[in-house]
Amino acid sequence: MRSIAPSHGLFLQPKMAHVACLVYLTPRCTPRSKMQCTCLSVCSLNRTIHPNPSIRNYRNYRNYRNYRNLGAISWTSLAQMARFCTVATPFSTSSSVPLTFRCPSALVVAEVTSDVPQRSEEWFALRKDKLTTSTFSTALGFWKGNRRAELWHEKVFATDIESIGVAARSAMNWGVVNEAVAIEQYKNITGRDVGSLGFVVHFDVQLGWLGASPDGVLGSVPGGGILEVKCPYNKGKPERALPWSAVPFYYMPQVQGQMEIMDRDWVDLYCWTPNGSSLFRIARQRSYWKLMHGILQEFWWDCVVPAREAVQNGRPEDAQAYEPAGRHPQTGAVVAASMKLAADAKLICRDIGGHLEFYR
């Protein structure tokens, strides 16, 4: 079995695995070419994708800015790209072997069994080289204190799993333990099937430094959505928590980021507690993404990436020069926009003590 070292600069280590792949081909790509594609994005639950530093490509951090002059890929072009999903596929090929692609009009998302569970050490390792949606509010400067600098330090010097505090780990464990129960409750209330994907990289290769771990995938595109589940820890007293009556504004960067990364138009944000639940529908807002994208890009490319390069070159003391400020000049504008989006979120239903009420 040979590995792939295609000319677009990604190095795949193939193995028999349950995988979920999203492949986007521009019209310049053909299955029999040497995969010299202008756009290729792959999401694999079980296969690691490594940038090949010897080849210039969009995913190579050092060359990213050199390619920005090539022009953006239009939404129309993206809509015309072939998409497919495979499950439990033995992937063995090389640049000289013809590939066969199934090209349905809509993306098929299959429920798969992953050997890289969310919040496992491998999952944390995959996230380390991406700016993920769960950290967007921190990267944007939403929180007081040193949270933004701490996130920068995690991305430059350490793995996520090493830097999680006791309180945060307890809250995370509460969510992990109850997430499956919450998803089942969501399915019972809505009658929807919920698919799963362990980790998703932005469909646009120019934004391949962005990633998300959705709690669930709802339907296929176009028209499909995303499920995001929250199990509030309630300051260490989760047994007393009540479901939200309104969406906390600080979740807006996460859910809007998920829609941008997965190219979907709505999120069901489901709040589960032992005492009831509430469900909100949040629509995609492209102007909001434009507002926060510039801040995220500065955080990653002007702060994280050059600091990493300094560390890799044996000059960790130089990395400190790239530490970001606690807030960005545009943080206030994003917070204000987040509050408006949260206020506009539609409450679908609320369950208190077993009494379920739907709202128009």
TrEMBL record:
Residues 122-261 form the YqaJ viral recombinase domain. GO terms for biological process: DNA repair. Pfam families: YqaJ (PF09588). It comes from the Eukaryota. PANTHER family: EXONUCLEASE, PHAGE-TYPE/RECB, C-TERMINAL DOMAIN-CONTAINING PROTEIN, EXONUCLEASE, PHAGE-TYPE_RECB, C-TERMINAL DOMAIN-CONTAINING PROTEIN-RELATED. This is YqaJ viral recombinase domain-containing protein. It comes from Aristolochia fimbriata (White veined hardy Dutchman's pipe vine).
